[in-house]
From TrEMBL, chain A:
Chief location: membrane
Lineage: Bacteria, Bacillati, Bacillota, Bacilli, Bacillales
CDD domains the UniProt entry points to: TM_PBP2
Residue intervals of the ABC transmembrane type-1 domain: 86-277
Membrane topology, from the record: Multi-pass membrane protein
UniProt keyword annotations, A-Z: Cell membrane, Membrane, Transmembrane, Transmembrane helix, Transport
Pfam annotation, one family: BPD_transp_1
Family indicated by similarity: Belongs to the binding-protein-dependent transport system permease family.
Keyword flag Transmembrane helix: yes
Annotated transmembrane regions: 25-47, 85-109, 121-146, 158-178, 198-221, 256-277
Cross-referenced Gene3D superfamilies: MetI-like
This protein's name: Carbohydrate ABC transporter permease
Natural source organism: Evansella alkalicola
Localization of this protein: Cell membrane
From TrEMBL, chain B:
Localization in the cell: Cell membrane
Source organism (scientific name): Evansella alkalicola
Protein keywords: Cell membrane, Membrane, Transmembrane, Transmembrane helix, Transport
Membrane topology: Multi-pass membrane protein
InterPro entries in alphabetical order: MetI-like, MetI-like_sf, UgpAE/MalFG_permease
Identification of the protein by name: Sugar ABC transporter permease
From TrEMBL, chain C:
SUPFAM superfamilies on file: Periplasmic binding protein-like II
Gene3D superfamilies in alphabetical order: Periplasmic binding protein-like II
Record's protein name: Extracellular solute-binding protein
Signal peptide: 1-21
InterPro entries attached to this UniProt entry: Bact_solute-bd_prot1, SBP
Organism superkingdom: Bacteria
Pfam families, per database record: SBP_bac_1
Alphabetic keyword roster: Signal
Length: 292, 292, 441
């Protein structure tokens, strides 16, 4: 429908080179300015991680520390099982992200592509899941995991992350599935393609950009989450990197430099994963590019 | 075709795993929260059934309504900020040089955990050493604002980091959605002489309307139950000036041992989200969904 | 191509999930069974939860580990398993696990208002049976009161603090200031500092318990040691002239710019850093911060040498005594009522408190709830001075927000912020306290 309207638009005066060039420069200055602003937090965090407790509070945020406290990193690395926490964070995050994105894609596919009576109801039920405040769930879930003997087990965390991220993931996927062309899928079905093949070989690849998007969002949520970990996990060997931060919060005093170092260490893996995943958000799929 | 796409077994296979997870891990807490809301319970010992007393108290609790007002205000600001994110995403998704790099840089702050973001903004807002007030003093402004201590402005001060924190999230979704717009449509419009703005407004925007609707719901629901930065930066203070529903609920449930009342607040919040979502969908449904 | 990568990722994901599920078998058994050779006692495990993570509190942690090792050696059939959580998470978790009756055998609790629901909910065990006269006398007088409900003791303190006014001698010397003996002198000190562009007092009133301590001293100096306590325990009223006068004086101080700019938005840690950097002349905090002013090597020696403290000055015509302090026990150890190793847990708590008391001041700079023989320990002068004040104290008024029930404490802290923010009058401050206390009755 959009195409017809666009033809009716008045033709623009063809060249306004100076105006356009100035506009372009202004645009770039703005874009670069914002980019610098957005990078500063990372620089700040790095400098933060090299300060001692006095400097953290009294130096301007972007001032260099007098005597860089590389010891903060040593401290973080030697205190507790950071290697173990690191490993736990990676596999818990990865498992939950994969489960969530897969389950959510399956549900969204079933809701938007398949015909069944209860689909709107089920969608509604998933959406309600978005609305419960996290802290209301702690006591009920603790009790539940206790009863099914999953307390202090990584699976409790993985399943909780999956369940709580499903609603938001489904909602984001939904917006995309609605706009996705159906012709290819219809053609595939005509050709006798099974639903499973259709989903795994056509729909899922076609939705790669949004799958990557939701994977990034899920990853960030899970990676930084600590309330569920603290509540359901008590053994050190199952705890995640966010516990590394807790380790430096004292009863009356907190070791901020060490927390900065932990935050810095813990941002690297998701930064890499983010850069990789975000390359997957590419140009829109054109009808010809996917073969059924 | 219809037969294949309404195969009950396939639907069950696709929906049930996620649905079971949702029912068990999300709905058990929801139902129990509603149940605890009917109790006088400190969250520790025995409970006592008191019917709807907690809800009656809620309706008359001026602190609660004040907090709800703050949450509502946050929801409004969050929705308004979506316009800005949409514009940025359109620029980034356009055919400009370096868009890919800009996009990646713009999203980096969203990788930071709330702990880091809170620390950053507390440095920015510090009454004497803070980045903003130092700047204001350097240009000769005396009596610089007390960003987090002045009860008239603290709420707005704290909205800024919250909105900034979520910028990446929405930009990412919009960007992926815009990239998902089939190239043919854009090319066709371009050949017809449409300007970039016209392409954006008349073609891309209607095509991603579904995604925009979803983000409006996410922004509103997310704002109504927002907790993180407020808790770390002000704990709802001074004297309740930045209290929101979730922080008030947390205080009731965990700090003052009114777990029953806290649960009632949590359940009420859920109902509130449901009602608001219903109206959003009603309002946005008037524009017909864009389909191919 | 993407499809291939995706299926691969998927496969890895699934296998890993399955692996974890499979791993669930090899969890450690909670309590080892079977007879230990030796004395025929069954092996037991005591779960112990505390809030001193090794990263932020290495000294505490080392002492705790040492005490546990000792205890395990003395009781070969006992293993103590430790879990640590940071302050706020700890509070939260204690309530969550308590709701399912899963408290650790031994854990830490705060006094009075915090622990009362746990005692009423029959979650904590009474510790009366582990006291003999000698053990009871080993505690500083009155410190156990905070852990008593209906006359029975439910926890044993491991820390006791008072809150002096710490001041920077260098700044005082620069302006020829003397330690104020009276409240009027104190106000003059503030005025002099303000005139010279110094920040007299740093205060992080976002954590309103710090503002509450200043108020409590004024209440004490105006109305004597009983005024506030009686208002809280309902033998008196909050709408008492002394308590209103104290509130008025807080506002006088605020109006004289006694406190740092933007105090209502600062955390205690931010405020403290202003003092630690010599940007502020005075800072009131619990004696738990003494190591920062004495032994902490991360703090410049020059700064540590310049710090001293004074007692909150007397108010002329007030009923208070300068030897009356604000303070009280911090965390204490409880034994869970439903613990299946209650006897061992009680032994452990007793042993812990005894051994902790012998080491904590010297090794970690924490003043224990038990008596410290100042002549026998090697401590910096500032520490000795504070310990002597503690011994000479005529009264220690427990922090108002700890004394009060959790509900009233919440109101109190909000009102403190409002009072300092000049949002309410002293009369309203008193009246709203009174109302909150009445509702609790």
């Amino acid at each position: 429908m959009g195409i017809d309207q666009s033809t009716e638009m008045p033709k623009r005066l063809s060249d306004k080179p100076i105006f356009q060039r100035v506009a372009k420069i202004i645009l770039y200055v703005f874009l670069i300015g914002v980019a610098v602003l957005q990078l500063l937090p990372l620089v700040w965090l790095f400098l933060f991680s090299l300060k001692n407790n006095q400097e953290v509070f009294n130096l301007p945020p972007l001032a260099l520390p007098q005597d860089p406290q590389w010891g903060n990193y040593v401290n973080v690395w030697t205190q507790g099982n950071i290697g173990q926490y690191f490993f736990n964070s990676v596999y818990i995050t990865a498992s939950a992200v994969i489960l969530t994105v897969l389950f959510a894609s399956l549900v969204t596919f079933a809701i938007t592509r398949m015909q069944w009576k209860l689909s709107t109801l089920v969608l509604g039920l998933f959406m309600v899941g978005l609305m419960i405040p996290v802290h209301s769930t702690l006591i009920p879930l603790f009790n539940f995991f206790l009863n099914i003997n999953l307390m202090d087990h990584p699976l409790a965390i993985i399943l909780t992350y999956t369940a709580f991220n499903l609603p938001i993931t489904i909602m984001i996927l939904l917006g995309f599935y609605y706009t996705l062309p159906r012709e290819i899928e219809e053609a595939a079905i005509m050709d006798g393609c099974s639903v499973h093949r259709l989903f795994f070989q056509i729909t899922l690849p076609m939705t790669a950009p949004v799958v990557a998007t939701t994977a990034i969002i899920n990853m960030i949520y899970n990676w930084n989450e600590f309330v569920f970990v603290n509540t359901f996990i008590s053994s050190d060997k199952f705890k995640t990197l966010t516990v590394g931060i807790q380790n430096f919060i004292g009863q009356y005093q907190t070791d901020w430099g060490a927390i900065g170092a932990t935050l810095m260490i813990s941002i690297i893996p998701i930064l890499i994963a983010f850069l990789v995943l975000s390359n997957r958000i590419v140009e829109g799929i054109t009808a010809g590019s996917v073969k059924g | 075709m219809n037969k294949v796409m309404s195969d009950k077994k396939v639907i069950a296979l696709y929906v049930l795993p996620a649905f079971l997870l949702l029912m068990v891990l999300v709905y058990i807490p929801i139902i129990l929260t509603g149940y605890y809301g009917l109790m006088r319970w400190d969250g520790i010992g025995a409970m006592e059934f008191i019917g709807l007393d907690n809800y009656q108290r809620l309706l008359q609790d001026s602190t609660f309504w004040r907090s709800a007002g703050h949450s509502g205000l946050l929801a409004i600001f969050s929705v308004l900020s979506l316009v800005g994110y949409l514009i940025i995403s359109m620029v980034l998704a356009g055919k400009i040089k370096g868009a890919d790099l800009f996009r990646k840089i713009y999203l980096i702050p969203m990788l930071l955990s709330s702990v880091a973001i809170a620390q950053l903004w507390m440095r920015i807002y510090h009454p004497t050493n803070g980045v903003i007030n130092r700047f204001l003093e350097s240009i000769g402004i005396e009596n610089t604002p007390l960003w987090l201590a002045d009860t008239n402005i603290v709420l707005y001060s704290i909205f800024i980091p919250i909105i900034w924190q979520y910028a990446g999230f929405y930009i990412l979704i919009y960007y992926a959605a815009l990239k998902n717009v089939p190239n043919e449509l854009v090319e066709a419009a371009r050949i017809d002489g449409a300007t970039p703005w016209q392409i954006g407004y008349k073609i891309k925007l209607p095509l991603i309307a579904g995604v925009i609707k979803v983000t409006i719901v996410l922004a509103v629901v997310g704002s109504l139950k927002y907790f993180d930065l407020i808790w770390v930066m002000t704990q709802g203070g001074p004297n309740g000036a930045s209290e929101v529903i979730a922080s008030y609920m947390y205080k009731q449930a965990f700090n003052t041992y009114n777990f029953g009342y806290g649960s009632a607040i949590g359940f009420f919040l859920l109902i509130l989200c449901l009602i608001v979502t219903y109206f959003i969908r009603k309002l946005t449904a008037s524009k017909e969904d864009v389909q191919y | 191509m993407f499809k291939k990568a995706f299926t691969k990722v998927m496969a890895v994901g699934f296998t890993s999930v399955l692996l974890f599920a499979a791993c669930s078998g090899d969890e450690p058994t909670e309590t080892g069974s079977g007879d230990q050779a030796g004395n025929g006692q069954e092996d037991v495990t005591i779960d112990f939860m505390h809030l001193w993570p090794s990263g932020s509190s290495p000294d505490h942690n080392r002492i705790v580990d040492g005490i546990i090792a000792e205890f395990e050696e003395m009781h070969p059939h006992v293993t103590v398993e430790v879990e640590t959580l940071e302050n706020e998470q700890y509070r939260n978790q204690l309530q969550v696990i308590s709701s399912s009756n899963q408290l650790p055998d031994v854990g830490m609790t705060w006094a009075a208002g915090f622990m009362e629901p746990y005692v009423r909910g029959e979650r904590f065990a009474s510790l009366e049976d582990i006291f003999d006269d000698e053990f009871r006398d080993s505690f500083v007088g009155g410190v156990l009161d905070g852990y008593q409900v209906d006359g029975e003791t439910y926890a044993l303190p491991v820390e006791l603090n008072i809150a002096p006014v710490f001041y920077n001698q260098a700044i005082f010397a620069e302006y020829g200031l003397e330690v104020p003996k009276t409240y009027d002198e104190f106000l003059q000190v503030i005025d002099t500092l303000v005139e010279n562009g110094e920040t007299p007092i740093t205060l992080g009133n976002r954590d309103a318990w710090t503002g509450s301590m200043w108020y409590m001293y004024l209440a004490d100096r105006f109305g004597g040691e009983t005024a506030l306590n009686e208002a809280i325990d309902r033998t008196g009223s909050f709408e008492n002239d002394a308590l209103i006068d104290a509130a008025r004086e807080i506002q006088t101080m605020v109006e004289r710019d006694a406190f740092i700019r933007g105090f209502n938005g600062l955390s205690d840690q931010e405020a403290k850093s202003e003092f630690m950097n010599g940007n502020s002349a005075m800072y009131m905090i619990g004696s738990w911060d003494l190591p920062n002013f004495t032994t902490n090597e991360d703090v410049p020696q020059e700064f540590r040498d310049s710090i001293d403290f004074f007692r909150f000055p007397a108010v002329e015509g007030g009923a208070g005594d300068v030897d009356s302090w604000v303070g009280g026990p911090g965390v204490g150890l409880f034994v869970a009522e439903n613990s299946d190793v209650k006897e061992e847990a009680k032994d452990f708590v007793k042993h812990f408190v005894e051994r902790w008391g012998e080491q904590s001041v010297e090794e970690a700079g924490i003043i224990p709830g038990t008596q410290v023989d100042t002549s026998a320990v090697d401590l910096p002068d500032l520490f000795i001075d504070v310990l002597n004040e503690l011994n000479n104290a005529t009264n220690i008024t427990m922090y108002a927000d700890v004394q009060m029930s959790a509900n009233v404490a919440d109101t109190h802290l909000d009102l403190i912020q409002a009072l300092y923010g000049l949002e309410i009058t002293p009369e309203e401050f008193a009246q709203q306290h009174e109302q909150a206390l009445l509702e609790e009755e």
